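Q: I'm building a small set of examples for a reading group on sequence design. Run inverse folding on the following structure and report the sequence directly after it, with nothing in between.
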């Protein structure tokens, strides 16, 4: 099997987390509490940390939110990116209050003078930046030039902004060119990847709810990753706060790009199954979210494909007529009753994770 060759990008730092170059592809998310509500925002970030989030982002729509970052960053372990729109002064304030990175949108941040002020604040406070172009909020001038949002317009917008940063001797930035249209997103990132070596933050924006958003993101982000494009990603979902991170890792695991926690291989089940495979998988997914060590679990209904899959897993269960065979390190170990399967697997996985 051919290994995915990653595009060579420069490495930048988002706080203590490296993005680009040879750094692992990082998984990001965003909070949806009011950033000015320090307690609620810290609580959300802690939940994201628990499922492996590397970097999070908080919206800063007002002064109170930008100032709240000061307290938030003291209480969390992952770097916080400040999401800035419309008002460049909030970017400056966020940088002064502990943001590790400033996400600015070239379509609405304003004149070159204002961007220069934000760059100055980023430099003075050790912040990196993200140029976050969004198909839905493109610069009016580019919209007039191209007639409608398109990949070319997004790339032009990103490169214009990149040049502005470079002209101010600032290169600690990454770029995203997101659209809610999957194909447009893929096209934009491919064009951008060919034109610069900045690290790319992947995402299909406003992707939708858990199911539709996961599919769209897996296709959009996944196909770019398969082409070696992408240094960090955010799956954008209208769902519970942990889901974006979990789906992000699933995409990376599916492509063998980065492993964290348990990868479950399970059969779709049929009349041959020896136990309730669906319920077992659902319960295991819930009970194993805290596991960080990469491992594989084969949850198989019967002996048709069970032994084959279990042979390549750290742990496995293969359904039988009366009892079910538990596998450890690919070998049959001992038999368990249906009602023991979940607890037994959780016990084994937790012991290996310790
Ligand atoms: Fe059916 Fe067995 Fe295949 Fe599962 S492993 S789908 S139970 S034949």
């Amino acid at each position: 099997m051919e290994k995915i060759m990653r595009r060579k990008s420069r490495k930048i730092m988002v706080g203590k987390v490296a993005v680009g170059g040879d750094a692992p592809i990082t998984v990001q998310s965003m909070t949806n509490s009011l950033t000015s509500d320090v307690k609620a925002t810290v609580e959300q970030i802690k939940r994201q940390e628990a499922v492996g989030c590397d970097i999070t982002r908080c919206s800063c729509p007002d002064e109170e939110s930008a100032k709240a970052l000061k307290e938030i960053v003291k209480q969390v372990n992952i770097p916080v990116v400040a999401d800035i729109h419309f008002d460049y002064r909030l970017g400056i304030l966020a940088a002064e209050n502990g943001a590790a990175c400033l996400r600015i949108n070239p379509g609405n941040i304003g004149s070159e003078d204002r961007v220069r002020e934000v760059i100055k604040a980023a430099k003075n406070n050790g912040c990196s930046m993200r140029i976050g172009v969004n198909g839905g909020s493109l610069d009016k001038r580019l919209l007039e030039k191209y007639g409608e949002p398109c990949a070319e317009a997004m790339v032009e917008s990103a490169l214009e902004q990149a040049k502005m940063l470079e002209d101010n001797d600032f290169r600690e930035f990454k770029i995203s060119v997101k659209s809610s249209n999957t194909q447009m997103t893929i096209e934009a990132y491919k064009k951008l990847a060919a034109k610069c070596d900045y690290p790319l933050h992947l995402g299909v924006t406003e992707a939708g709810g858990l199911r539709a958003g996961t599919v769209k993101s897996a296709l959009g982000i996944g196909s770019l990753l398969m082409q070696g494009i992408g240094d960090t990603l955010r799956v954008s979902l209208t769902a519970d706060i942990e889901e974006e991170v979990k789906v992000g890792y699933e995409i990376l695991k599916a492509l063998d790009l980065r492993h964290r926690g348990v990868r479950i291989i399970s059969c779709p089940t049929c009349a041959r199954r020896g136990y309730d495979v669906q319920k077992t998988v659902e319960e295991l997914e819930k009970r194993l979210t805290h596991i960080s060590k990469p491992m594989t679990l084969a949850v198989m209904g019967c002996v048709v494909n069970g032994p084959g899959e279990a042979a390549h897993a750290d742990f496995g269960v293969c359904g039988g007529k009366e009892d079910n065979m538990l596998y450890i390190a690919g070998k049959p170990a001992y038999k368990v009753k249906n009602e023991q399967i979940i607890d037994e697997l959780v016990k084994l996985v937790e012991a290996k994770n310790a």
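The mean pLDDT is 95.
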